[in-house]
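Final report, closing paragraph on structural work. Over the funding period we assembled a curated collection of sequence-structure pairs, and we close with a single example.
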Amino acid sequence: MLPTNLDMDVLRTLVVSNDLGSFAKAAIQLGRTQPALSLQMRKLEEQIGVPLFRKNGRHMSLTDTGVTVLHYARRILALNDEVLVTARGGKDLGIIRLGLPQDLAESWMPGILARFQARHPDIPFEVQVGWWEDLRDRVQEGKLDLALAFGDAAAAHSGEVIGHLPLQWIASSRFRWDRDKPLSLVLPDAPCTIRDKCFNALNAVRIPWRIAFSSYSLTGVMGAVEAELGISARTTLGTPSSLVEVGSQLALPVLPHVPLTLFTATGRRSATLNSLLDVIKDSLMPPPAELPQLRIA
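Its predicted structure, as stored:
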């Protein structure tokens, strides 16, 4: 019996539909009708031989098998795009200009760049670090090819939310909170999504607080935390190993997840950039066995 060959276009439809959140949006981006995409998904289920979707009210959700297939689809498409770029002499894009928030630039970015460079060793990088409004504007002005930014507000400005990162309270292991005094906070300058989420969480449970240190520089903020001036908050991807999670120890409210939004320059989506996006999205996903149900309608 001959092995089944999965259709690359069908796998791309699965990935795009998931990333955009609906088949309707995917149909517009892929230049096809929504019924055509539904037929593709039925074809994929027939090829694999097990259900990939389940009804969830008026929407469709991925089954556990569907989530696993999605994970492998990203890898297959990344290899497909890599073959095309390599066969064309690696000239798909001369240089990639990437914008990142400070929170991700220190600890998360090196792993992403290393994985991408392993696939595309001849593609140079230019990385700019800044706040989400600055990064969004640079993309719109053509100064960046793509940028990642935190916050719900970013999604209202032509951004695509590609993940939600957990936040945690962090401090030096030597930090002590005198309960007779307001909680000392060490945070980035406003405007800052993470700063706002800290304020809202503490105010909701009526924990008094004060700003002990504020800076535009994330390095300065982390230095102040290590110096025990107070506590701060960062995503689990960006927390330095020298600091510890203290939310449970101090009985602080759980912080909400923060949306991670992607901005892409018009006309710059290419096989190379799509390969980088696959690496980024894979890095935000836990192993297949731990993946949550994903709504794609």
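The first helix runs from residue 8 to 20. The chain has three domains: 8-87, 96-152+260-269, 167-245. We thank the funder for supporting this effort.
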